[in-house]
Design a protein that fits this description.
Helix content is 22%, strand content 27%. The protein is built from 13 helices and 38 strands.
Length: 653
């Protein structure tokens, strides 16, 4: 990066804004120049006699040896955060650049994930289209962002080990939505690979990642998918994240993630928090633990550890006296060798004051000043004791949520993680507001008229299609309603099936049939007897005319495409009316539908899979496709493709 700055004039590198530190995957670290000097300055004792501990030897006692290792690991973690991440930040800022960091690591990560992320300008997580990657990484990134005052929480999104070019946007939505509910609000598509050649497509690929480059069949059609991601990102960057619980991760290092012990009850949200933030950024206001950037928590949950440094415990004592609520076990000693017996004695004295007569059974609460310490109960019991109702609850359990508070209202994002429709009653910890449903797929906004005010909550009957997500907005604004709409989810008053023969023109660039083909019924291309259709990859345009009578005032007319793979764009009477990439594949055609004859064109694009399989059956010299990493064989399974329907028009009052 220094060479780029030195060798490329500033006027020629105006787009370079960020220095990226990717996920840590470089093994452990435990030493550096002047480490002994810095160790002595930090802990006020000489580490030299304890160096045999690094070779598995006990020095003086097991307890002393463990404390020395704790001190060493903690210092390494602090230096990795402040010298490595923070140091690169200082150099970057001097050169007009910002830093972006994935604040987690694997295979020898020597740091503490929250502190590590806190030193970068922006933080990011990661998730793969399938599998477990993302299950800890994104909560690590969002917690670090929240407690260190950062708005954007990025994620390397849709990384994948699936067969090349096999995924569609519809297959990516579930994982994206899950991690939106965990605090991600800036999607980074993984991956776009430079494509230097035009002769044999699709070209260069890696064994990992989804291909978002210009040689993907649906590259030019994914704007409607990107609009969805942009709407979600924009909405989830508004206001402040709402979390009732701060899980303290402890002071031990290295630390790659936190734990939820006791378990997070349904309907509440949380952040992980570290000692650095508690000591330097946390205060109490109106009974809440607050951070300078507006984050606030009702309860601080301590991990099931016997150790805590006296400096931290003293800060927690001061917070409790000011009104904080702490739940967790009583510490009995310091983890460090610093100040030895005196540190342990101070911990024991402070703990006795904080926990008082708590025994975890008959006595579970010790009031102190304006706050209290609790122990021996689970989190739901603690929240009930504090009279803090769930932020969100419903009769359907597998609907993760996130809540952001804005001036004068609230934003809730709900995600149906099931591949089946759900109908449920949802209760939100909001009262006295009007409810609206914002559809992030279509951008459509409408009022939810059927609500029940249950101070301090609002109950709303909701419906979500398979894998559907929705923003529920609470605001003072009262939207007008269509004259006859009284239900949250009005049903069609009438339906018109579009049946009969379709004329289908396949793109010649995809080596489809030269002339249009008549489909008497909609069918899966991969089941065709015609190899030019069976192995086709690319765009095909379905054309058909149909008649419609006069629409009535106030009616909304929807075109339902049924089922398809992978993305459809629609023209009606020569006018583009939108597209669809995820079920339900429905498009509003009210503005262009006319009485009498209407001409319908539906452009449908599939993936590269079928053409790559088809070419694998040819001698290599005859193949017109090429991949750097090609998993497809003659016996690979073809992917369903095309417009499958049934296509119909639905009239909504």
């Amino acid at each position: 990066m220094g060479e780029v700055l030195r060798r490329i004039p500033a006027e020629d590198r105006k787009t370079w804004k960020m220095v990226v530190q990717d996920s840590y995957e470089t093994g452990g670290q435990n030493w550096t120049d002047d480490f002994i000097k810095q160790f002595r300055k930090r802990y006020h004792y000489d580490p030299m006699p304890f160096l045999p501990v690094l070779h598995g030897k006990v020095v003086q006692s097991e307890d002393y040896s463990n404390r020395f290792l704790w001190d060493l690991r903690r210092l390494v973690a602090d230096k990795v955060a402040h010298d490595y991440v923070g140091g690169l930040g200082k150099i970057s800022h001097k050169n007009g650049l910002r830093t972006w960091l994935e604040c987690y690591g694997h295979w020898g990560f020597p740091g503490e994930f929250l502190q590590y992320g806190g030193q970068a300008d922006e933080v990011g997580g990661e998730f793969w289209s399938l599998g477990d990657l993302g299950n800890i990484e994104n909560r690590a990134a969002s917690s670090s962002a929240h407690i260190y005052g950062k708005t954007k929480v990025s994620a390397e999104s849709f990384t994948s080990a699936d067969p090349a070019f096999s995924r569609t946007p519809a297959g990516m939505k579930q994982r994206a939505d899950r991690f939106f509910t965990e605090g991600i609000n800036s999607s980074l598509l993984h991956v776009y690979i430079h494509q230097p050649n035009e002769d044999k497509l699709p070209g260069v690929n890696a064994w990992f990642g989804n291909e978002f480059n210009r040689h993907n069949t649906w590259f030019a059609d994914m704007d409607i998918f990107l609009q969805y991601l942009k709407r979600c990102n924009m909405m989830l960057q508004q206001g402040k994240y709402v979390a009732d619980i701060a899980y303290f991760i402890g002071e031990d290092a290295p630390k790659m993630t936190g734990i939820q012990d006791p378990k997070l009850p349904d309907g509440y949200n949380f952040d992980y928090i570290n000692a650095e933030v508690i000591e330097t950024r946390m205060k109490v206001k109106n009974g809440k633990m607050v951070l300078p950037d507006g984050m606030q928590y009702s309860i601080l949950v301590l991990p099931n550890l016997q150790t805590m440094r006296p400096e931290l415990l003293e800060k927690i004592r001061n917070l409790v006296i000011s009104g904080a609520v702490v739940l967790g076990p009583k510490p009995s000693k310091s983890p460090s060798m610093q100040n030895g017996l005196k540190a342990d004695q101070k911990v024991q004295k402070l703990a006795a004051e904080l926990w008082g007569a708590i025994d975890g059974k008959t006595v579970q609460v010790n009031p102190l000043g304006k706050g209290m310490v609790m122990s021996g109960m689970d989190l739901q019991q603690a929240m009930d004791y504090l009279k803090i109702p769930a932020d969100y609850s419903s009769s359907e359990k597998d609907i993760p949520f996130i809540h952001r508070e804005i001036n004068g209202g609230s934003i809730f994002f709900l995600s149906n993680q099931n591949n089946a429709p759900v109908s449920f009653n949802a209760k939100f910890r909001v009262a006295g507001k009007h409810a609206q449903l914002w559809n992030p797929v279509t951008g459509h906004i409408r009022k939810l008229p059927h609500v029940k005010n249950l101070e301090p909550s609002t109950e709303i009957p909701l419906e979500l299609a398979p894998l559907e997500s929705a923003f529920i907005i609470f605001t003072d604004e009262d939207l007008s309603l269509p004259s006859q709409q009284q239900l949250n989810y009005p049903k069609p008053s009438r339906t018109l099936a579009i049946e009969g023969e379709w004329s289908v023109q396949f793109d010649q660039k995809g080596r489809g049939p030269k002339n249009p083909i008549a489909f008497t019924t909609l069918q899966d291309w991969s089941k065709s007897e015609n190899d030019s259709v069976k192995y086709f990859s690319g765009h095909a345009i379905y054309a058909k005319s149909f008649n419609f009578d006069q629409a009535k005032q106030g009616e909304t007319i929807m075109l339902d495409l049924g089922n398809l793979t992978a993305i459809a764009k629609v023209k009606l009477n020569g006018i583009a009316v939108g597209g669809a990439w995820i079920a339900p594949f429905r498009i509003d055609i009210t503005s262009v539908l006319k009485a009498g004859e209407n001409k319908l064109e539906i452009s449908v694009v599939n993936t590269w899979v079928n053409r790559l399989i088809g070419d694998s059956k040819l001698p290599e010299a005859q193949r017109k496709t090429s991949l750097t990493v090609n998993p497809y064989k003659p016996d690979s399974k073809l992917q369903p493709s095309g417009l499958l329907g049934p296509v119909k028009i639905e009239v909504m009052n």
